[in-house]
């Protein structure tokens, strides 16, 4: 999870913070999205030959792209939340510094609010179930399509 709380594993943190994920995670996510997109484009390209096989390929493309796309979406949401939290904290500190000489410290108390930074809910069981359902649909449609007959070449 990219938003981590202070713990034994992260002793330098004083509040929940966005931590950049390891390099391999975005690479794997983008690989799944691109592969799924290419499979979906291939499904659209073969739509004229066999509709059932094209739909099956589209389901396979969605199944390949769904987990990576969901991870990228959740990472984006976490980065946006972390940036908003950082901006709010910075504005509160700036407002406190600006008014420090004019107002009593008790009046500045409400300016230093504590905004809990929570990670975006990943919902991986739902995403995994959706991916599994897409894969089952792909297998069922491919089985229903059956083998494509290869025309025999007649000698001349």
Automatic annotation (TrEMBL):
Segments traversing the membrane: 27-48, 54-73, 127-146
Keywords of the record: Membrane, Transmembrane, Transmembrane helix
Name of the molecule in the record: Uncharacterized protein
UniProt organism field: Dietzia lutea
């Amino acid at each position: 999870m990219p938003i981590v709380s202070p713990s034994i594993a992260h002793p330098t943190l004083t509040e929940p913070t966005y931590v950049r994920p390891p390099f391999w995670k975005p690479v794997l996510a983008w690989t799944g999205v691109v592969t799924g997109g290419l499979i979906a484009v291939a499904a659209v390209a073969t739509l004229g030959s066999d509709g059932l096989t094209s739909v099956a390929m589209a389901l396979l493309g969605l199944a390949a792209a769904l987990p990576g796309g969901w991870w990228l979406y959740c990472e984006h949401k976490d980065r946006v939340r972390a940036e908003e939290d950082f901006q709010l904290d910075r504005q509160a500190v700036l407002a406190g510094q600006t008014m420090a000489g004019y107002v009593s410290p008790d009046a500045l108390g409400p300016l230093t609010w504590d905004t809990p930074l929570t990670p975006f809910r990943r919902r991986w069981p739902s995403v995994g179930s959706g991916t599994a359902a897409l894969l089952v649909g792909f297998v069922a449609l491919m089985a229903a399509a059956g083998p494509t007959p290869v025309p025999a070449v007649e000698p001349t």
